[in-house]
Amino acid sequence: MSYKILLFDLDDTLLDFTANEIYSLNKLFHQHGYTFSDELFGVYNSVNKQLWTDYENGTIALEEVLNSRFSETLLKLGKTVDGIEWENQYRELLGNGHQLMDGAFELCQSLSVSHRLFVITNGITKTQIKRLKHAGLYRFFEDIFDSQSIGFQKPSKEFFDYVIGHIKDFEIREALIIGDSLNTDIKGGLLSGIDTCWINSRLQKCSAEIQSTYTITSLTELCAICGLEHNA
Hints:
CATH superfamily of the largest domain: HAD superfamily/HAD-like
Keywords: Hydrolase
Number of helices: 10
Strand content: 5-15%
CATH architecture of the largest domain: 3-Layer(aba) Sandwich
Shape: globular
Oligomer: single chain
Protein name: HAD hydrolase, subfamily IA
Number of strands: 6
Number of domains: 2
Helix content: 40-55%
Largest sheet: 6 strands, parallel
GO molecular function, one term: 5'-nucleotidase activity
CATH class of the largest domain: Alpha Beta
InterPro entries: HAD-like_sf (IPR036412), HAD-SF_hydro_IA (IPR006439), HAD-SF_hydro_IA_YjjG/PynA (IPR011951), HAD_sf (IPR023214), PGP-like_dom2 (IPR023198), Pyrimidine_5'-ntase_YjjG (IPR052550)
Structural class: alpha/beta
């Protein structure tokens, strides 16, 4: 298949969100006098994942995810904090983090010469654009599509209908979604009829229900799918 339009997820696909998250959370909790332990991260991670799941299922608004995740985390530890204040501080720290996944810069640089590149993300507009610019990737992309601006999130068909409708000369057969999440990126492709490439870098178990057109374990493998020769 000859793909010309590449729709990239951002976090843990091109940018190492996990590394950025740990670094930012560590600084945030230390600023407030807390030792950021594995136990504390476990509590936060549990709260945060449930809120994002609720958001992706359409049961709560994005603002509720962002403004309550820290207050709910600390409440489990018997503390009352201003969740909005903590979120604003965290957002600032997170926006300054731009750790790249291995090979991401070189891949985007090469592909941008012969393909049309776009970002599709469930992240926050201002934060994601800032991180892309700091990482040096922003110039390679024709447009950035994020759930906050669109009003719908991956994997909803509404999100991808918006993307399709706002890319000039879009042809489904020429498009490929690239991402690390089966439940948002790959499922979104299935719902919208767009081919998908699942980056399974953590060697997760495959899903019988959510099947990707391609499965790779590193970004460099995308070169062959897109007709580029990879120089090691």
